[in-house]
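Case 514 in the screening queue. Each case pairs one protein sequence with one candidate compound; here the compound is iron/sulfur cluster. For every case the pipeline is the same: read the inputs, emit a complex structure as tokens, and attach any notable structural observations.

Predict complex for case 514.
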Amino acid sequence: MLKAIRRSLLNSLLRIEAVFDRSFGSRLNPIRQLGTITFFLFWIVAATGIYVFILFETTVSGAYGSVEYMTRDQWYLAGVMRSLHRYASDAMVVTMALHFSREFIMDRYRGARWFAWFTGVPIIWFLYTSGISGYWLVWDQLAQYIAIASMEWIDWLGIFGEPIANNFLDNTSLTDRFFTLLVFMHIFAPLFLLFIMWIHVLRVSQPKINPPRGLAIGVLISLTVLSVAVPVASHAEADLEIYPAVFNLDWFYMLFYPLYDRWGPGPLWGMAGGISLLVALMPWLPPMKKPKTAVVYLDKCNGCTRCFEDCPFGAVSMRPRTDGRPYEREAFVDPDLCTSCGICVGSCPVSTPFRQTEELVTGIDLPGFPLVRVRNDAVKAMQHAGESDVEAKVMVFGCHHGVDVKALERPGVKALSLPCIGMLPPSFIDFAISRGGMDGVLITGCRENGCYERQGNRWTDDRIASVRDPYLRERVQRNRVYVSWADATDMVSLTKNLEEFRGSLKDMTGKAGK
Ligand code: HEM
Ligand code: SF4
Ligand code: SF4
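Case 514 output:
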């Protein structure tokens, strides 16, 4: 059931991504950059926050006036900064929500990925604390309502001896000292948020935290235009002697306040705590996936470090040799970090199908999907590609997360799917053409900038272009190799590309038409 829902959500997501790919190009596609955009928005919020803070007065009587001064007198600079600060904060909620929904739909939160998911939960709490505490500082009637409701909500826990909401009983009970404390909260919450954002990507190897420049400029310009066109304004000044009745809530941060008014603090704590706990535990809820993680075979490992450099999850480390062989280092896999993508297998120089031995043992392998199986399955497939001397014979290598390549099979076309296309050592392309009797090899896998395993398609491109070890050998004619990145929903375009490729091979090899 859950699987069917996720599959249909995934198909919709991939279709939407395809539309954006066509409009922006895959590199600038914002859906592929949600995490990096959220980081960038944080920097906008931080920079504008510093500016606004310089003009802000941290007293109960002066706060509102100083914000009004920015908005009305210095609207062209401080007003724009204030609006940018607000809109970028709102946008953070949106991009963060889309980012974690995407990771969920793509099933990228279980196994070794639990850490990024789990640390996402405190991120949500700190983002909300940062945003909500910002609203207090304006000290208008919205701030008054939000501050009192928030304090009452916290008071319900009974952790403070005296209820902190008492500071808002009337205009005399709110002191500058307490107000300064609120200001500090709004400074420290984002600092903690940044700290957890750093922890969040700590286990990702070479995480991408900055969006491409074009996208960053686009985001900044859009928010600036919005800030100039629709400047943010305050409500009337807070007055603790009255109960503020009419205000426009910021639905990005305040969607829970109407619930608070209706339910009261206890049920809202129950809901917030329950949902947080459920989300935090999701990586361990059934169906559990536990594929066998990569294993190093020391007798074949020469310590070249390629697997260490290529692993997208930092699961491989190099440590001093333990087996007395004359190499300085050896590869070591931390099973807790390994997602069983197999990319390290594709990077190992020992992973070659040309060796004569029956057992194809590599320096590093996936026990659940060993390289010997890839070679044997490929050999078997190529033997059954048919005695076609009229149609070009093509071996397709794909990945479990892209198009179902088995569905491409037809006379003259054989296909093999791997956990990730990055698992394919380029020597297999050479092997398919020089030994397997294939006229060409088609490589496919998730679309550019969308690899399920982060780097599989990128490293494959680089290996074929001979800019990343292990290179595809010079002797392989590049026009016999066709790379076509395609997501699971791109069957039609991939089939078209395959046929075009076969056509070009037919011309090249002089094979007759049907
Ligand atoms: C301020 C909010 C957030 C920011 C700035 C952020 C940013 C990022 C970045 C930059 C990455 C690494 C992307 C890469 O290089 O592959 C990432 C990965 C990830 N994020 Fe977030 N994130 C945020 C919130 C969240 C939340 C709330 C969740 C879920 C509860 C979440 C779940 C994940 C997961 C599961 C990954 C790992 C993907 C993988 O290993 O392939 N993130 N995030
Ligand atoms: S299979 Fe290899 S490349 Fe993939 S996460 Fe595990 S160690 Fe890293
Ligand atoms: S790529 Fe292969 S030979 Fe090189 S360090 Fe890794 S396991 Fe050893």
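Case 514 observations:
- The mean pLDDT is 94.
- DSSP finds 17 helices and eight strands in the chain.
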